[in-house]
Design goal:
487 residues, 4-stranded mixed beta sheet, alpha/beta, 26% helix, Rossmann fold, 3 domains, Dna Topoisomerase Vi A Subunit, Chain: A, domain 2
Length: 487
């Protein structure tokens, strides 16, 4: 009986839901090509997907079997004659061999796909002695047989690890990781030295395993039995779902080099799901699949996600005030008692409504006195009140002042109101007429930070009461400016 030898190079136990990432680099340029992610579960199943260097899901239409092998960026540009390179299935097996000081590369396509001939050439395997080390399963052997076909004419010689040369017969699906963990790096080098031309044969009596769930995003299609809606939910698992204090489901997505936050039922998430599904499968999802997936994601955000406040234009967290610039980079201005700075990834969650416009990136060295040339006020005290209103409107919580501008016709009341709005919360509709009912006013308040009402001849009782009310849970209090024509 062969005694097992403990080693730190073998497989490590995985926690429920743990995600392991492996980075694939171009052997020629050393640039990152993609990140292969695996998420493990207690039932021995796993979920796999790819992300691009910028965090976008998938490989932008490229198939993994056309990529260089994992670890090939450590290969010399031209290998000396007689160089032995072990080819294994997967990144974990390759890392175990590399840690044992054995030159190795790993396939990244998974069974049943084998790397293409071009991928093997790009992996700098031309002229080497390739030693194939399959997993101890029929699928593993067949996968290496297809790899051997592509290697013919590339490698100088192709040899196979023999399961009969293991000190003891392997268990089902055991691989190089298990071998090193059980017998150690020295035994692995001895096993490689015994490799022969003949294809490996599976030890007799080794039963095939029951299939485990493997969903591979970013290439091919998910498991055939999965509906489009289920695939969409799986694709969305890379996003962060949560709910606002009022219970409304939201999602934070990684889009390029920045994060975006949207309500789950928004067009933003719908478009993201459609794009990712097409990138992963090459097909367009049906409208019903989108609807079904959104229903599941809403429930996950509401019942499984944490409660996180969301803000429109102005928010706070950790003693810092954040002012959303609403630009394409989703930048914000962080304001503290000692100063301000523009931040690319604010820790608070901002949502954006249709009609909100971006603010220019602020620059140091300004003076509030410059504002006066744009505002038609006679007295210094009136300008101080106007500037104080603008400063107060930048606070994330009330109470808030209500700015009332009165004057003769043509005295630039609307201009002063528009200037205030452009400085704080620019919008495609900067000024609004009098709301007909409370609902109209609350919708306007929720879809922006400021409500600017123009040319009011009087203020009704319900309007006065609504001006300071809260339109929805988690939304800021009413923020109104009004112009009033003096008769």
């Amino acid at each position: 009986m062969t005694k097992r030898k403990p080693s730190s190079l073998g497989k490590q136990p995985r926690k429920q839901g743990e995600v392991v990432k492996h980075h694939l680099f171009d052997p020629e340029t050393q640039e990152l090509l993609g990140v292969h992610c695996r998420q493990y579960y207690n039932d021995a199943s796993k979920r796999m997907w790819w992300t691009q260097p910028n965090g976008t899901l998938g490989l932008n239409g490229r198939k993994p079997n056309t990529l260089p092998l994992y670890g090939a960026h450590h290969m010399p540009a031209v290998s000396p004659p007689g160089t032995i390179v072990v080819i294994v299935e997967g990144e974990t097996a390759r890392d175990a061999l590399s840690a044992a000081q054995i030159l190795a590369v790993g396939t990244v396509s998974g069974a049943p796909d084998a790397p293409t001939r071009e991928a093997l050439v790009a992996s700098r395997l031309t002229g080497v002695i390739a030693v194939l080390w399959p997993d101890a399963s029929t699928v593993g052997i067949e996968m290496m047989q297809r790899t051997e076909q592509q290697l013919n004419g590339v490698a100088a010689e192709i040899l196979w690890i023999q399961f009969t040369d293991w000190p003891a017969a392997p268990e089902l699906e055991e691989d190089a990781v298990d071998f090193i963990q059980r017998y150690g790096p020295g035994a692995a080098r001895d096993l490689i030295a015994k490799a022969i031309v003949q294809c490996s044969a599976l030890p007799s009596g080794l039963d095939e395993p029951q299939a485990t769930t493997q969903v591979q995003h970013g290439y091919g299609e998910a498991a055939p039995r999965q509906s489009q809606a289920t695939q969409l939910v799986e694709l969305a698992s890379v996003a962060e779902f949560f709910h606002a204090p009022g219970g409304e489901p939201h999602v934070t997505l990684q889009v390029g080099d920045h994060r975006e936050t949207w309500p789950v039922r928004s067009s933003g998430l719908r478009l993201w799901l459609r794009r990712e599904f097409y990138r992963a499968t090459g097909k367009a999802p049906s409208s019903q699949a989108i609807q079904d997936a959104l229903g599941v994601l809403e429930a996950q955000a509401r019942f499984d996600g944490p409660e996180i406040p969301v803000f429109v234009r102005v928010g706070d967290g950790g003693g810092t005030l954040y002012f959303d610039l609403v630009n394409a980079r989703w930048e914000a201005v962080a304001i503290t008692a000692t100063g301000w700075r523009v931040v690319a990834d604010p820790p608070v969650r901002f949502v954006r409504a249709h009609g909100m416009l971006p603010l220019s990136t602020p620059m140091p060295g300004g003076n509030v006195a410059w504002l006066r040339r744009f505002v038609n006020v006679d007295r210094k005290t009136d300008f101080v009140l106007y500037a104080s209103y603008i400063v107060a409107a930048l606070r994330p919580r009330g109470p808030y002042p209500v700015l009332i501008l009165t004057g003769e016709q043509g005295s630039a009341k609307s201009t002063a109101e528009r200037v205030a709005r452009e400085l704080i919360d620019p919008n495609v509709a900067p000024l609004r007429s009098e709301a007909r009912e409370v609902r109209d006013l609350m919708i306007a308040a929720r879809n922006g930070w400021m409500v600017a009402l123009d040319n009011l001849s009087m203020l009704s009782g319900w309007m006065s009461r609504s001006a300071g009310s809260r339109p929805a849970a988690g939304s800021p209090p009413g923020r109104c400016t009004r112009t009033r024509t003096r008769s």
